Amino acid sequence: ALERDLQRGRCSSDNANRSVKHKSISSCPSPSRVTTKSKAITIERLQAELNDRDDLISELKTKLDDNSDSETGDLKLENIRLKEKLEQTEQLLNECRAQLHTRTLQASAHNSKNHLSEVELEKVRSRLQKRIEELDPLPELLKQAEVEKEKLQKDIDELRKCLPLQSNFLAQSPGTDQTRQTRFSPNDDIRALQRRIVSLEEENQKLSKMLNAKDEELRNAQIRLNAKSYETTSLNKPNDLRRPDFKVREDTYGSKNHFLQKDTFDLEQQTSRLHLEHAQLKRERDELERHFTSQMNELREKLEQSNSANRSMQNYINSLKTTYATLFNDTLPTSLTRFAAT
């Protein structure tokens, strides 16, 4: 399209020159007056074309701003929902920890007459407490991931602020170092943003590996807890055979041990439910990151298209200046020097 416009400009200039020559031969008017009139017509046409290009750039900027605002609103809503989900998970984790502490105290009180069972349960409680302490940093890691997302959002906003600098190249000189720096700064920002995205993806992979390792350790702890419960039951059976005189006391202990096992089973169910909710939260976080990466790619493509359009416009204007200088072999009028600067 730019080449066709340039060709039409050249044809119109040639026609104008031929018309001027024909009139000069037929009517012999003043040559300087005909040249000035032809220059004025060409300059007005060039100015109209530049104004049309300015309107097109403004329309593209408006569309890009509207799309970015809608996408930013969706990201904010998704972040709010994830924060609420994270708060609910932390609250449930605190309740589970409190219930674990309460059940452990009850188990210690009920099994004070059986030293071996008390020691085994204390070991199991310590292992479970250690697993819970290892899971405590997970909410903090999720918060750090959200902070990284906020930083990326700020980078997007800064990148969007740099876009008007690119569209204002019509009012700046392309030969200065400052304009060159302004023209290439979005590319540097894109590369920095890509490095930030790669770093975030690596951190997400590390976090996923850590979550898988913690889940495996939690499953192993649950298996060992079931094994210790079975061993406790097995130890109670020989005691029933060797000490028939204490049948009533052992029946009471068996009833207490049954309640303890029931409480332990309830605690395991709560732990499993917490694990499922944590996995669901992780899947939602991964989905949000994929959606965010897709939006970032779209924004980069739009920015690249805008930069390409800016470069094309700059080349077109330079070619117009060269064509004008070639056709008329003269400088532009003083009233239009701002177009000559571009």
From TrEMBL:
Q: Where in the cell is it found?
A: Cytoplasm, Cytoskeleton, Microtubule organizing center, Centrosome
Q: Which UniProt keywords apply?
A: Coiled coil, Cytoplasm, Cytoskeleton
Q: Where is the composition biased (Polar residues)?
A: 25-39
* InterPro entries from the UniProt entry: Odf2-rel (IPR026099)
Map out region (Disordered) in residue numbers: 1-40
One GO cellular component assignment for this chain's record is:
centrosome
**In terms of one coarse class, where is the protein primarily found?**
cytoplasm
Question: What biological processes does GO assign it?
Answer: regulation of cilium assembly
Coiled-coil segments = 43-99, 190-224, 271-316
What is the similarity comment for this entry?
Belongs to the ODF2 family.
- Supply the name of the protein: Outer dense fiber protein 2
